[in-house]
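Bench notes, afternoon.
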Amino acid sequence: MPRAKRKVVTAAKKKAAPRKSVVASSAAVKKAEEGLKKVEAMLAQERKAVAAAKSKLDSAKAKAKKSAKAVDKNAAKRAASAASKAGAKLKAVRVKVAAGKAALADAKIITKIGASEAAVRQKMQERADALASKADADLAKAVKQFEQRFQKKRKAEDKAKLATIERKLVAKHKQAVKQLTAKLSEPAKAAVAKTSAKKSPAKKAAASKKKTAVKKAVAKKKVVAKKAVAKKKVAAKKKAVTKKPAAKKGAVKKVAKKAVAKKAPTKKKVAKQSPEKSPVAPPATST
């Protein structure tokens, strides 16, 4: 048997709270609605009055037809004038109702236009506030960056100025010390020399650090130069290896020519030496 389909019970969605319309909450619209309600109430009353006047007129006409009395005929005339007046009032109230409806429609349109303008102004204000806050943040960031750059630059400038001032002051101090030590007695000079010797190790250490730094820099430059020279040599060797086959052929030809040139003199020497080495035997003498 097929399974029965389960009924899925879903939770009832919460109804969103109705938003208050700007048009409904407008004072002009409320005023127009109230005026229209009053006019509509007047219209209802006038309609009742017209209906009553018509019924009176009908009854008066019927009575005047039946009787030939002047009173009945006058009553019919009065009923007719009353009915015509009631109709005129009804028409006037209807005009007022139409005017009230038009006023209400105009009030709604004007309210919508005003609401749209207000929304635009609100959005513009929100955007202006956001841009102003962003501008403040960007300004603070830029000021901070400028302060950092300015402080860094000013520190470097102050350091350079202090270095020049220190050099000048140290030079003046040394000159003054030299002039004053010349006026000292011998024991005092010896004491000053001892104190200066005690203070000198720190200066020597600083000088040695500078010298080692300079030496390291020079050594690095030499290493870089050696590497560049080695690279050039390797490149030259590669070029030479590519040109070797043609050079080898020329070398083989030169070696062959040298070998031929060396062999030729040996033959000439043999030719020259052969007559000397084989002397002719003297003729035999008879006894």
